[in-house]
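User: Could you go from structure to sequence for me? I need the amino acid at each position, not a summary. C-alpha cells:
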C-alpha cells in the first residue's frame, strides 16, 4: 500500500485470551506497517500476559492496563486521545473477538484517504451479518429504528469497526460523546452529525463470536432505546 500515514489499530479486551493471538497476527498480516494498541481491563483470564509476551517480538504493539473493568466506552475514548497525543493520522477500532475480520483493514485505510470517518457496515449494500436468530433480528431492527428516529443517513450505528482520520475531524472529539455502554457507538454518530462530518459506510461481514463469552449485558438494548430518544430530542432542539 503506497501510504505514508501513521496508522493505529485499537482493540479493547476483557477475557479474550482465546482470541488475542489471532487478532494481533491478523492485524500484522493485513496492515504490516500499523501500530497496535490494546486496552485491557485487568482480564481475569490474563489476556494481558499474552500481550506482554507478544510485545517481546513486536515493537509497535502497545498495551494499556487498567485496574478494573472500566467499560468499552472509556476504553475507546482513551484510544482516541492516545492516537491524537501520539500523532497518529488514522485510528481504526475493532472488537478483539474476531467478529471484525482483520482482512477488511486495508479497505478502511483506503477509504480514510478520502473520508474523515468510516464505519464498517453490515447493513449497507454488500455487507453481511452472520449472527443468528433473535440476535440478528434485534440488531437489524435496532439499527433500522435508530435510522428512522434519528434521521441520520447511515444503515449502521452499533458496530465498533470504524476508522477516524484524526487530522480531518474538525472539532469532533470522541471524548464529547456522553452516552455510555452500548449506546456509546450510536452516540458517536450523533456527535459526527452535530459536527457536520460525513459518515462513510463500507460493507463488512460480521462474524459471530466463536470463542469466549459476550460481555455486554442485554439490558443495554433498553438503555439504547432510551438514549436514542434523548439524543434525537437534543439534536432537534439544538441544531
Ligand atoms: N477493556 C475492556 N474491554 C471490554 C469491556 N467490555 C467488553 N470489552 C471488549 O470489547 C469488545 C466487544 O465486547 P463483546 O463482549 O464482544 O460484545 P458484543 O460484541 O456486543 O457481544 P457478542 O456479539 O456476544 O460478542 C471485545 O473485544 C471485548 O473483549 C470492558 O469493560 N473493558
Ligand atoms: Mg463481540
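Assistant: Here is the amino acid at each position, in order:
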Amino acid at each position: 500500500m503506497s501510504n505514508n500515514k501513521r496508522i493505529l489499530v485499537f482493540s479493547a479486551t476483557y477475557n479474550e485470551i482465546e482470541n488475542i493471538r489471532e487478532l494481533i497476527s491478523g492485524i500484522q498480516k493485513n496492515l504490516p506497517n500499523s501500530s497496535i494498541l490494546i486496552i485491557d481491563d485487568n482480564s481475569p483470564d490474563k489476556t494481558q500476559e499474552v500481550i506482554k509476551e507478544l510485545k517481546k517480538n513486536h515493537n509497535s504493539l502497545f498495551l494499556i492496563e487498567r485496574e478494573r473493568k472500566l467499560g468499552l466506552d472509556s476504553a475507546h475514548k482513551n484510544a482516541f486521545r492516545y492516537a491524537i497525543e501520539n500523532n497518529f493520522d488514522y485510528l481504526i477500532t475493532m472488537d478483539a473477538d474476531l467478529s471484525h475480520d482483520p482482512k477488511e483493514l486495508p479497505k478502511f485505510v483506503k477509504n480514510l484517504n478520502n473520508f474523515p470517518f468510516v464505519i464498517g457496515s453490515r447493513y449497507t449494500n454488500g455487507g453481511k451479518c452472520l449472527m443468528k436468530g433473535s440476535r440478528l433480528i434485534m440488531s437489524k431492527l435496532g439499527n433500522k429504528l435508530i435510522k428512522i428516529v434519528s434521521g441520520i443517513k447511515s444503515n449502521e450505528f452499533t458496530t465498533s469497526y470504524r476508522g477516524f482520520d484524526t487530522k480531518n475531524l474538525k472539532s469532533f472529539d470522541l471524548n464529547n460523546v456522553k452516552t455510555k455502554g452500548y449506546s456509546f457507538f450510536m452516540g458517536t454518530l450523533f456527535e459526527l452529525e452535530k459536527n457536520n462530518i460525513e459518515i462513510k459506510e463500507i460493507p463488512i461481514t460480521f462474524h459471530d463470536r466463536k470463542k469466549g463469552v459476550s460481555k455486554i449485558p442485554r439490558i443495554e438494548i433498553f438503555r439504547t432505546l432510551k438514549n436514542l430518544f434523548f439524543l434525537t430530542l437534543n439534536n432537534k432542539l439544538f441544531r
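One structural detail worth keeping in mind: The CA atoms of residues 123 and 140 lie 8 Å apart.
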